[in-house]
UniProtKB/TrEMBL annotation:
Single GO BP term: riboflavin biosynthetic process
CMP/dCMP-type deaminase domain location: 37-156
Region listing for Disordered, in residue ranges: 1-35
Enzyme nomenclature, EC number: 1.1.1.193
Enzyme class: oxidoreductase
Annotated protein name in UniProt: 5-amino-6-(5-phosphoribosylamino)uracil reductase
Polar residues composition bias: residue spans: 1-11
Pathway involvement of the protein, from the record: Cofactor biosynthesis; riboflavin biosynthesis; 5-amino-6-(D-ribitylamino)uracil from GTP: step 3/4
Species annotation: Pycnococcus provasolii
Keywords: Multifunctional enzyme, NADP, Oxidoreductase
Xref: CDD domains: NADAR (cd15457)
Amino acid sequence: MAPRCLNQSSPCGARSSRLHSRRSRTRTLASASPLSAQDLEHLKSASALAVQTLGETQPHPNAACILVNADGSVASSAHLRANGSPSPEVRAVKLAGGRSALEGGTAYLNLEPGQCHGDDAPIQALLAARVSRVVIGIRHPMKHFRGEATEALRRAGVNVDVVDTINTDDADVLAVLDRCRAANAALACRAETGKPLGVLKYAMTLDGKIAASSGHAAWVSCEAARARVYQMRAESDAVVVGGNTIRRDNPRLTTRRESGHRPLRVVLSRSMNLPIHDADYNIWNTSEAPTLVMTQRGAADEGTLDVLRSKYGVEVVEFDILTADVASNYLARRGCLQVLWESGGNLSAPAISEQAVHKVVAFVAPKIVGGPTDATVEQPAAPTPVGDLGNIFMTQAIELKSARYEQVGTDMCVTGYLNRAYDGPDFMETATPSSQTATSSYDGFDGVVSNQPMMCDLPHLDLPRSMVESWGLLPGTQFGDAAAMTALCETDEASNDGGGEKRSAPVHFYKAWMEHGALTNFSPHEICVHDADKVSDMDPSTTWPSVEHFYQASKFDVRQGTPGSEEAEEIRASIGAAPSPEEAARIGRTYERTRPDLVYQDWTTRKVPVMEAAIRAKFTQHNAPRRALLNTGRRRLVEDSVVDSYWGGGRDRGGLNHLGRLLMELREELRMQESVQRADVLRVAASLERDRAPSWEDGRNDL
């Protein structure tokens, strides 16, 4: 039976009703909306397009771009596929035919672009297409991105409308705004709390039981509701349960899909009272999905932990004290945006109390199971979804915010937020709207837009463009020597002596959508590794979509005469064709684990030269990430991976951090090269000035 919804339309298209609707509020100083009905329809389409890959790839900012010609026809549309994929603006402009293809047209974005890759690519693409107007649904929730793209577009003379800064009580505008916010509720939660959006999901009977008194719980909900849960898992980074759930229900906690994103299965157990020696438990089958066990130090001996790690391939992390809050913060450091809590009442109560859970999704089945009212050891009470919260009066009950109701199959689904509705009007409501600023012109993908003064005081130079381009400092542009001199003379404040705490603090980078995303291997910068034949037996002329694509493909031995070389070549090809760095990594890691016979036997010694060659190609072939690297000054660079203490800093940030070290070495090399180039420019400048200055002898000859 198809899901049937009730009442008003929800942000994601379902019919729903809100307990606390913003539309019932009285708004002061409301003004007429500058948006047309066509604007609203395109924004609605953009918000729907943005969530198209939910479940296919790991959660990431959900963004989409729809380009509309001046005559109102749709030219192209695109969405962000995965972590590290090219921005939807870049993809949409390419689909529309590139530069100047949309002169006088309009771009519709559900989310303000986040320029995390250091190259302003979304802005450059829109300006190159010559759109005259951009309509943005919501500002970027991350503070280091918020307003930056809007200001850049306005400086370039583009008319920008940001819907969540418009003071209006127009119901149609507010409905579209709700859709845009709903698409990135997890990102909004992460931006404000520093934690992933915690979603508590449970199914219960009409009398409030999640299982019978015997513990039997299959199945409380209907088939349609279970299908919805599988989708919710696919849309999450991790699924969390407690030890009781593992022992009683033996759940698989998978998406039931053969492909797509597989969330991390997390088991919280302080006592380690788990069926570790019973391989029939689904949670130990890591071929279906990865499993992580969180526990407290000393809860299990090394032999037990070794069984989990070596026999099942389960990751184990120990904490001094394990709480729901500790687990949530740890998952945040792993880069999680959304975590699904499918725990029982004993764990869900502290998860709520410690604010690890922000949202509730409850399925209520039209069933009554009953159970004893006075529980005993022999006859326990039927469990309820939430344990003791310490409330003794009904007035202390938590009332859901932005509550919605939807019929799913034969069940009723109730959703709402516990504290703040991250898809509602409260978030960023007090943020200052972006203001109109001075404008400047822009022409083409390769140009540079800047209203900043020159960073050094040098005489004007008519340097030949061929000289500028041959130095490799900037791509050839119409701005010629001025752009080159700006780049050459830029002052790096972060490297000045005597800097404050911010200047000396380490730079932590991890996900491509986070700050300093340009430093990650997942940033969307194509590379051509000229010595690939030496480090990984590859064709040096091959172009790879990212550093991660090249690194993962380099693991597999394709040398002729090596057993399995043809299969290894096919794996390399599939990695190279992966639509995103995330998917390339998934393919490479899967085959490395399941087919170790195809990996270079000396991969341990090969991988550092491979990584060094790849990042050198990226930072020498792309100006923007190179500037992002140099702008870190002399600060320590740390790949902030809690799971990788070889390439990253590890959980305690005391790991080997080889990637950070390689980047710092490359940064110093690039800095020295720029110093030499800067000195060459100054010599040329001095020489030109001497040639131009009239000498006394020249003056005498005129007598």
